[in-house]
Amino acid sequence: MNGKEVARENQPNSYQYQCSSTGFKGKVIETLNNVFGFQDFINSVQEDAIKSVASASQDVFISMPTGAGKSLCYQLPALAGQRNGVTVVISPLIASMTVQVKQLQSRGICAETLNCTVSKEEIARVSEDLCSAYPCTKLLYVTPEQVFTDEFHSILDQLCKNRMFAYVAVDEAHCVSQWSHDFHPHYLKLGELRKKYSRVPWVALTITVSVTVMNDVLYYLNLKPPVAVFKASSFRSNIYYDVVFKECMDNPFDDLKSFALSALGKEWEFTKRGSGIVYCQTKESCEMVADKLTKLGLNSRPCHAGLKDEDQSQAQHDWMLGKISVIVTTIGFRKGTDIPSVRFVAHWSVAHSVDGYYQESGQAGGDGQPARCRIYYSREDRNLIMDILKKDEQAAKTQEEKIKAHSAYKSFKIMRKYCEEAHCRHSFLMKEFGDELYKCKKYCDVCYKPRSVDRRLDHFEATRVSKKKNSNHSVETSNELYEVERLEQKKEIYNCKNTSGDTNREDHIDRAVNSLSNTIKAELGKVKDEKLIKPPKNSRVLEPLSSFILDVNVNTREEYLSKLEEEIKANYNTCTPLLSGFRLEEQDILDCATDKEFSIFKTKKNIDMYKKEFAQVFKALRESSKNLELHPLLVCFDESHSASKRARNDTLVSGKDISKERSYSLCDTVTKSSLLKQEKLFSSSKDLASSTNLSNIAVIQRSSNFGYQLKNLIPSCASYSSIFTGTQNMVLKRNEVQDYEILKTLNSTEEEKKESSFSFERPPFAYERTGGPVEMDIEKIGANNYEYETCSSSFNPLMNNFIEIDNRSGTNNKSISRCVEKEEKSVSSNSGNSTFPQKRETHDNNNIEIAKKAKIMQSASTNPVHLKSAADLVRKFLNPKYKENKLSKEMFKKICRTLSHRLVDQNQVTEKHAKEAVDELFQKKRALNSIDDV
Ligand SMILES: Nc1ncnc2c1ncn2[C@@H]1O[C@H](COP(=O)(O)OP(=O)(O)OP(=O)(O)O)[C@@H](O)[C@H]1O
């Protein structure tokens, strides 16, 4: 019996069907109906892809979600395509290959597999058939490992020789990309095969992948351009995505349980039809989360690589049968366990890449029924992953390793953006997958509950500020221990990831971990050595023995401190002539510099960041000096809170008081000084103005414009209006500034400024105890914001100062108004006019703005009761519009302010007028996007 006969003998239902159609398209349809038993193509992507593959005119790339019918895209052309012979299907999953081969055989199609589980006799039988002149086999399933054996190459050579090599289909082709979480190194070698058998058309099939992964597939597999690309949309309309922040929750486990129960549905306890998956970063967290959930009444089981094989299988089995509701697992669990009734997927730690997240979350709602996917994001998890990826990048030796490590890092940054920014989750993912953008409207938290997401993000930001504030030295010095722990965790994460038994990768990771470990040990050794060296005598820096930044030693710190002291002195010397009554001792300036140096040293992560921060501070100090402004470091310096001063006092042996108390700080000046001092200030600045003719001396020209004076002295504080709530509590508020590290903000980068500003610019937010999408009452938002921004004059620094100073001087508000009006007129008439009085030349645009604002505030303040009533009325009619999403929160505040002032000004504070005013606005436009519309 020859090979062909043997193969036929062993194939009970080998493919016998003879097509009656002649053209390949007709053959395709006939085979679809008669061999596969399908009436039609499952979707247009499947149809187009099958026709393209069958035509055999070019290489084809197909991307479709799990279960969308990809297999048919090569199975059907293998039988009805333009090319005769054997289609070789490369797949990494032996279990899925075996299932497919059985299914094909049951349809009468001659399919075989060659992999490590197949017996020698089987291999011999199949090989004999393949090497025959007319192989019976139509589809041959092999693993990527098998492809590179010599035996297999000789089979392929023979097929080529006999012109019986029809197609190569690469299933799960995304495994070629490091960006995908299923990376399989053997896939990288497949490109060589493509080159060797260049005449055979290739088909690459993937689940839905990002553009980056797709490009990797095309590149690494060496697909021949032009490649025909067929992609199904990545939009999963039945999945609701959201992100919550663990740091912002009292008990995240409670939240996880509520989330799971709400996704499983009310009747779940009785029907037990749905199930869920929780993804964790480590084996330990799998165990811990499963334990917590079970204790909270939700039957859960861990399943990870640390368990024995039989325990893993048992857990999967029980979960698939519905014996347990929730399986808590690490990345890699997906294989072979897809069940359609998964009602939720929770990521207890953020996924490493968008591709990974899409695939893992995509296991929810396979049956098309509603499902939910939530990420429990935390700064700690994020930093840990970033650290690992960064160190991978540093440890990478070859160019390829470097590119891959860099890609992984970049990929995670996208995931970070997904969590830390408010974009429609669906559109975000679709953009990553190169699909047409489509706003989901209500299938994600950002679209469904935008305000709730805003508040969550605010809260998350706020935890960053408070965490920094609370962190103290003892915690931070444990960094060294933490590093070692992180290494262990890193190993752990990768062990979990490598469930596929990929030894190469494990070796690589172990090498990377070891080398990193050695580097850290060496660094720690250095630190130890450094600790043995005594710090220089008379060291002026705070905590000279600390090692917050490994490569910044005490000498470097001393250098930077001296330079900082020099710059601060220069700023002080330039500005003090302008500020009568404000004096600092030499020691104060050093303390100020020392505090600042220490705060930079303590908060920056590496030497570059340390130096960069200094460069920025120096620049800001010089800038302030150039503008004759006292830098905020000096303005807000408070020796009673100075760490340097405390340290100095602690170490003083003698009772000699070297820390002479300053009589008052600048802020104290504001609080304590009388109008007399202001008058002095006024006259001295006037003198200076006339002598120097510098425009910014306008800052202190008008004694009444005291708020403005401060505003200019602390230019960057302008937006932090809550600081200046009035002269009476100025000192208290100044301390608040220090609490929130505003000094740092003032000297920080734009991005950092933005981040830090949350605590000042935004009103208090609602806490979501359960982390679930709790809606805040808009009545409260409106009220709070209104009050915060406009309602009472006490919230406006400028007006407050005007009023206060004015009252003290015995004049009334009307006179201020007149004064402001007069100034406004004269300024607006012609600022460049030569007949303009000398004094006016010193006013810049800010003055005009201030004057305008003051005018508004003044008119409002004449009748605050009226204004409050007007605001209440406007809010009442505006609220329904807001709920209908016709305007944003910002617009709400602006309109509220504008309309209530208008009502007061027109003496129309009635319900009727308020309603009319609001209605009128929305008659013109359905939605208001700009205050110009008002
Ligand atoms: N044209 C069709 N009409 C009806 N059913 C189809 C059609 N094409 C495929 N199917 C069925 O759809 C199901 C999923 O198909 P298949 O296993 O090929 O999906 P897949 O995209 O390869 O999924 P995975 O990514 O999990 O491998 C199978 O049961 C298959 O028989």
UniProtKB/TrEMBL annotation:
Family annotation (InterPro entries): DEAD/DEAH_box_helicase_dom, DNA_helicase_ATP-dep_RecQ, Helicase_ATP-bd, Helicase_C-like, P-loop_NTPase, RecQ_Zn-bd, SRI
Positions of the UniProt region annotated as Disordered: 822-843
Record has Nucleotide-binding as a keyword: yes
Pfam families: DEAD (PF00270), Helicase_C (PF00271), RecQ_Zn_bind (PF16124), SRI (PF08236)
Protein origin, superkingdom: Eukaryota
Domain Helicase C-terminal: 255-404
EC number annotated for this UniProt entry: 5.6.2.4
Primary localisation category: nucleus
Keyword terms, alphabetized: ATP-binding, Helicase, Hydrolase, Nucleotide-binding, Nucleus
Compartments (UniProt record): Nucleus
Catalytic activity reported: ATP + H2O = ADP + phosphate + H(+); Couples ATP hydrolysis with the unwinding of duplex DNA by translocating in the 3'-5' direction
Domain Helicase ATP-binding, chain residue ranges per copy: 51-227
Entry keyword Glycosyltransferase: no
Entry-linked NCBIfam families: recQ_fam
Membership in a protein family: Belongs to the helicase family. RecQ subfamily.
Protein's recorded name: ATP-dependent DNA helicase
